[in-house]
Amino acid sequence: MTRTREFLPAAAAGSVTLGELTVNRMGFGAMRITGPGIFGPPEDPDECIRVLRSCIDLGINFIDTADSYGPNVSEELIAKALHPYPEGLVIGTKAGFTRSGPDAWELDCNPKRLRKQLEGSLKRLKLDRIDLWQLHRIDDKYPAEDQFAMLADFVREGKVRYVGLSEVTVKDIQAARKVVPIVSVQNRYNIVDRDSEEVVDYCLEEKIAFLPWYPLGAGLRVKGAKKVRNLDEVARRLGATKMQVALAWVLRRSPVMLVIPGTSKVDHLEENVAAASLELSPHDLEELNA
User: Fold this and answer.
1) Which residues are registered as beta bridge partners of 18?
2) Which of 69, 162, 189, 214 is labelled catalytic?
3) What average pLDDT does the segment 137-145 reach?
4) What CATH code is assigned to 13-289?
5) Does the reported pTM lie above 0.85?
């Protein structure tokens, strides 16, 4: 029997809103469908195409990317794999960084350059309007108000539907909202790295989607850390991987969480999406929060 969209695996995480758009809270981050150091093409482009198409088969209807992933490679692969896009798919992209080589990230949010980046993303993604366009960072070399004003211009021009921010404080979000509505915030956050707790709580209060990047976290590999030991124990008890438990914990942290784990392998994608239906008991949560 064919499963309806409501019963696809990613839907088990529930949904969240981005403005007037509704997406499943289990999304996909497309940073890893690039070469080493997030630079150049991936080693296996065909497998990355399969990953993107499997996202749709699994019920993922939000994909997060950026023009700097590759650069350009991630956006181009998304269009190659999925255009014309299935109904209900929301693609969010970001701008602000330039790339000179593997693992090299240079911030440049000159408002004129942001416009050039937007035009490039529209062309590569084969879109007339981007549903969610996010400022990768606020660049302190230019007035923040000018960067926010450029985002507002993009919305007024009809080239962007909604705007989001990345790696910001509550004060940053409040300042931006005086200029342009903000529907999403993307900060680093996971079971070990919880520096953005205040931002998570603010997003819940204001009904802003929170996209935790690096949701699995390098911190999970820190041997001997108490949280990692507890994570291992809960995973063993549930018969799950510790990465699945880490994703389930993030989803339980707040109803505005929209997780975006990334991978370049179909089997890893399926493993991540399975976390959408992983149930954590009050005892599990107490242990993970200790």
Assistant:
1) 21
2) 69
3) 97
4) 3.20.20.100
5) yes
